[in-house]
Amino acid sequence: MNYNVNEKGYYGEFGGAYIPEMLYPNVEELRQNYLKIMAEESFQKEFRQRLKDYVGRPTPLYFAKRLSEKYGTKIYLKREDLCHTGAHKVNNTIGQILMAKRLGKTRIIAETGAGQHGVATATVCALMGLECIVFMGEIDIQRQAPNVARMKMLGAKVVPATSGSKTLKDATNEAIRDWINNPINTHYIIGSVVGPHPYPDMVARFQSVISKEIKTQLKEKEGRENPDFVVACVGGGSNAAGAFYHYLNQPEVGIIAVEAAGKGINSGESAATSALGKVGIIHGSKTLLMQTADGQITEPYSISAGLDYPGVGPMHAHLFASGRGEFISITDDEAMKAGMQLCKLEGIIPAIESSHALAIFESRKFKKENIVVVNLSGRGDKDLDTYIKHFEL
Amino acid sequence: MNRIQQKISEDKKLLSIYFTAGYPKLDDTVEILQQLENNGVDMVEIGLPFSDPLADGPTIQASSQVALKNGMTTDLLFQQLKDIRKTVSLPLIIMGYFNPVLQYGIEKFCKKCSEVGVDGLILPDLPLAEFEENYAEIFKKYELLNIFLITPQTSEDRIHQIDSASEGFIYMVSSASVTGSSEGFGEIQEKYFERIALMKLKNLLIVGFGIQDSKTFSQAANHSKGAIIGSAFIKMLSEKGKIGISAFVDSIRKV
Known about the structure:
The structure holds 2 protein chains of 2 kinds. Chain A is an alpha/beta fold. Chain A has 16 helices and 14 strands. Chain A has helices at 24-39, 41-55, 65-71, 89-102, 116-128, 138-143, 145-153, 168-181, 199-207, 209-222, 238-244, 273-276, 314-322, 332-346, 352-358, 384-391, and strands at 10-11, 14-15, 61-63, 74-79, 107-112, 131-137, 157-161, 186-189, 229-233, 254-262, 278-282, 285-289, 325-331, 371-376. A 6-stranded mixed beta sheet of chain A has the order 3-4-14-9-10-13, with helices on both faces. Chain B has a single domain, classed as TIM Barrel (Alpha-Beta Barrel). In chain B, 46% of the residues lie in helices and 15% in strands. The relative contact order of chain B is 0.16. Chain A binds chain B through residues 16-22, 24-25, 163-164, 169-170, 173, 176-177, 180-184, 278-284, 289, 291, 293-298, and chain B through 50-55, 57-58, 61, 65, 68, 73-75, 97-104, 124-127, 130, 148-151, 153-155, 158, 173, 176-178.
């Protein structure tokens, strides 16, 4: 079985482009050009250069000795937290802004939940001198004031999404509506491997630099390119898509996707899409989706804003449905504990999203000789408030 | 012949009204349909509310949210429409997003439509290729027409594809916009309406998005078979309630 996208834009039964006709020309323009543009040597050269000089790649692959000792297996951390802006998100925004330039677009829009993708988009727009509008749920704007300030400092206009539940999914709706209203000059930088084809594939390709580097770095350290397992948290799933990408079709590498159980899968406050979702359409993609029996999209919950999405990218839906990926869900408390533990054992303050991936070692046992790479997708600076409240620091 | 096709063949400009089922009150659906018929409207689009209506502006979003909060569901809509053909003979189209239909089951949904006497569907986020490959047969079996949209950005090639896949009419979106824009029509729209009229399509066109009064209605209908009013009608319902329907329809038709 192939786990990459097929020529029609599907991963198994998932994916496609379920978009209103108003968006067809925009999405079609992108679909016809993205592979061609990405294959251009000048594009590749500029992308690599920016990732190296601006983002700070390659990020280290760090052997977490004390964490490994604690769990009796070999744990490596892929340090995406050391990227400029503090998370893997910028790999994608660099790629997409170069794409937008080549498509002749002058206006950039984006959605953001906690604000990480918004900041990463505002950053590259400042870098390239392009107009930037970020849609953010009204409730998230209140919850994430520092990131709102960052975006403003970087020159972006932050527009509150006041529709629906006023969070990430509504910010995404508003960005899509803006794109309908501005079909000619605007490029929409989606922040994850979600949305209509070709977005999931394009974003995965930009993020695939993560697993490309893991291969080289692991070869240096362990004499082999393939770990036994690669682990990543999944909200929409962009860091996971990047960490899994070059291992998708290598069955000897176990793929572990970690979802946010929130207060527990059956608590009514969860974001564990693989456990709670059914096949449906969200933001132009057929995928697993949390919804009512009547097909209304429901509001997810997680302590981590970056995992708080009612769907999951179609690549991941396919990894789940086909059994290629092992899906584990982690509660708020488990994640917070694992995050604090990494601080104490390794001197690294992780984003709460990434802490979900770190938390699996409590229950998921590995062999002593196993090499397990965990994608540490972001740093925890943005989450200090949550850490302070949770641990009463 | 389907009721839509019959209506399209009449020698007049058609006024079609969109409203959200279950708004303002949960059980308003039938009475609104009856009043629209009694006031000489030609066709109706019944909006099946969805939590995340991507192509809609604030007015229809808000009405959808209220309708859902009121308790509107797909099943309930079909229950409300159970006896509609005893009192209403207008062509009826259900307009909604694809996910609720998918969850209900496409075949079951189409079967229900045909049982209650719905004539067509508009599902903006069900793409043409997807429809033709997977669902065209089912629509045909239940004699339902699927209405496609074109926009000012739709290429001529694609318009021809859509024309050959359409059997009722083509829904011509007036401008690059979500529903409920109130900017009126200028030279750009006039040129677009003329350009499409000159393409000599096999299907007639009905214009929607941005039609709000008799002026925009006649501008739109000038180069087409008629026009659809949605947000402006819902705004009126919010302000005046069902009692305002008659005056609203008259004000559009007054030219």
